[in-house]
Automatic annotation (TrEMBL):
Gene that this sequence comes from: accD5_2
Keyword Transcription: no
InterPro entries per the UniProt record, alphabetical: AcCoA_carboxyl_beta, ClpP/crotonase-like_dom_sf, COA_CT_C, COA_CT_N, MCCB/AccD1-like
Protein name per UniProt: Putative propionyl-CoA carboxylase beta chain 5
GO cellular component term, pick one: methylcrotonoyl-CoA carboxylase complex
Length: 542
């Protein structure tokens, strides 16, 4: 192995190590004190509940672990958005699990909590997966009510989704495992069935403090809406359990009896590991995002048997397209090439840039995958579409539009991995979050922004300098350098995968070695949802 490989390997392994350290801290939720208080009540922690619920030895795909990371510092933070979400197996069935973490402000809903719940429900709806809610929530986080309460994508949307999902035939089971107040109360009761834990679970529209202030009644929370009240007096809840474990056992039991539904029918054969070692990816992926590398070498380490059926290998080479398998599932790959290319026409093309010919090729390939019912996997390392008069005169806008059209209108499931840069309209054409990927994960090496820090800073500084000069202010070299540094620093802090994951622009950050697992679980999930719409791109931009 050469020096470059070893250097990359050290850096990429360090990034994964740092990622795991940050996750470990996040897994502490509201912190040691809140954990101790929670456990004193005899309650399991949110992650313990999930671990107990899911099948041992089967994979768990967490979504949104970094949601809220670095946000709401003035409120004490909101690790994982105060809710644990993911796809797991319960009694052999893939389910979406949504578990409030009551160590974070009693499981109250911050704005990012709503966004994360809505994303988890979206995943359940798109894939027609059952949802299990482990509810332990104080409802709206009152100091931020104006950012979470009334708008379309705020808290109310969750209950609207409960109703819509029910009418779609999506199974929803809730367990009330702590005080569930106001908004926290609607969610479990809008599910197909709700169970409640005796002594710790309670569910009511208004807690004892509000009842006292509203109507002057003195009543404790247990009498108001505890397990006995809701199971034996009101009939609001359906099953009463003595503790968390018994409650979770009951969910497992019910899930074990669920019948089979029609599948989408994506092709799968016996899985095979890649022939080339996936761990090589650490050494192959450069230590910085401007360096060129051979994307094919990465691809071959993600695909079964390292086999790839390349489409139009000699044409539009700044995007690699082709068919392969991941864990036995057939996939259509669309990946940005990162090495400099000399096209057959003699033109030099930069790696990571989408040219007219590559957009044209990718469009046709995406349409082909839709025709053949093959799920699409996008590997993003893209700085954007080619600029300049040659590209414009060649019609780059219409070729880019064509690709965006095919991606947007695809009816096969799409999965996106941001492995390097994800800049500009390249993010869109390569199926960024706005293009409905069923799942989108970033590698620790990812950078997501409208453009790279350097380019953005230079562009902004030119604009700012022109404005200052127009107002008669002197812009000397020192002032320009200061503007450049400030803008670059700000941009760089906003392009990290952590910044993106905190805001749910991606579903999470993964070790590159987990990529195959995400694709496989994602296609298995997507296979629950038959494709109902015919593929139609409308007017294509020829
Ligand atoms: C759709 C409309 C809505 O959802 S309106 C929401 C209305 N919600 C409420 O009135 C619930 C108020 N909270 C409570 O009654 C209790 O916190 C319940 C849920 C019973 C839990 O009690 P307990 O386990 O003792 O926790 P705690 O009270 O010590 O709270 C822990 C920390 O969380 C906070 N907290 C709690 N609820 C909220 C809330 N809704 N908004 C904002 N903050 C909330 C508490 O203040 C406490 O914070 P801290 O740890 O002291 O900083």
């Amino acid at each position: 192995m050469d020096i470059e490989f070893n250097k990359n390997e050290d850096i990429n392994k360090q990034l994964v190590y740092d990622l795991n350290l940050r996750l470990k801290k996040i897994y502490l939720g509201g912190g040691e004190k809140a954990i101790a208080k929670h456990k004193e009540k005899g309650k399991m922690l949110a992650r313990e509940r999930v671990n107990y619920l899911i099948d041992a030895g089967k994979p768990w795909l967490e979504m949104g672990a970094f949601a809220g990371d670095g946000l709401y510092a003035e409120h004490g933070g909101c690790p994982s958005g105060g809710v644990v979400c993911g796809i797991g197996y319960v009694s052999g069935r893939q389910c979406v699990i949504i578990a409030n973490d009551a160590t974070v402000k009693a499981g109250a809903w911050f704005p990012i909590t709503a966004k994360k719940n809505l994303r988890a429900q979206e995943i359940a709806m798109e894939n027609r997966l059952p949802v299990i809610y482990l509810v332990d929530s104080a409802g709206v986080y009152l100091p931020l009510q104006d950012e979470i309460f009334p708008d379309k994508e705020h808290f109310g949307r969750i209950f609207r989704n409960n109703a819509i999902m029910s009418s779609m035939g999506i199974i929803q089971i809730s367990a009330i495992m702590g005080p569930c107040v106001a908004g926290g109360a609607y969610l479990p009761i809008m599910s197909d069935e709700a169970m409640i834990v005796e002594g710790t679970g309670s569910v009511f529209l208004a807690g004892s403090y509000l009842v006292k202030s509203a109507i002057g009644e003195d009543v404790d929370n247990e009498t108001l809406g505890g397990a006995t009240t809701q199971c034996e007096i009101s009939g609001v809840t359906d099953y009463k359990h003595p503790n968390d474990k018994a409650c979770l056992d009951s969910i497992k039991n019910i899930m074990g009896m669920v019948g089979d539904f029609v599948k989408a029918g994506f092709d799968r054969v016996k899985p095979a590991a890649p022939k080339l070692d996936p761990k090589d990816i650490y050494g192959l992926l450069p230590d910085n995002r401007e360096k060129a590398y051979d994307m094919m070498e990465i691809l071959l380490r993600l695909l079964d048997n390292s086999e790839f059926e390349e489409y139009k290998a000699g044409y539009g080479q700044s995007i690699i397209c082709g068919l392969g398998r991941v864990d036995g599932w057939a996939v259509g790959i669309v990946a940005n090439e990162r090495k400099v290319i000399k096209s057959k026409k003699g033109e030099m093309q930069f790696g990571g840039v989408i040219y007219s010919d590559s957009a044209d090729k990718a469009t046709r390939f995406i349409m082909n995958c839709n025709q053949k019912k093959i799920p699409l996997v996008f590997l993003q390392d893209v700085t954007g579409f080619m600029v300049g008069s040659r590209a414009e005169h060649g019609g780059i806008i219409k070729d880019g539009a064509k690709m965006v059209n095919a991606v947007a209108n695809s009816v096969v499931p799409k999965f996106t991995f941001v492995i390097g840069n994800s800049y500009g309209a390249g993010n869109y054409a390569m199926c960024g979050k706005a293009y409905d990927p069923r799942l989108i994960y970033a590698w620790p090496s990812a950078k997501i922004a409208v453009m790279g820090g350097g380019s953005a800073a230079k562009t902004l500084v030119q604009i700012q300098a022109a404005g200052l000069k127009a107002r008669g202010e002197e812009v000397d070299a020192a002032k320009e350098a200061q503007l450049l540094k400030e803008t670059t620093d700000r941009y760089n802090s906003q392009t990290t995968p952590f910044y993106a994951a905190a805001r749910l622009w991606v579903d999470g950050i993964i070790d590159p070695l987990e990529t195959r697992k995400v694709i496989s679980m994602g296609i298995e999930a997507a296979n629950h949802a038959p494709i109902e719409k015919a593929f139609n791109v409308g007017i294509i931009q020829t």
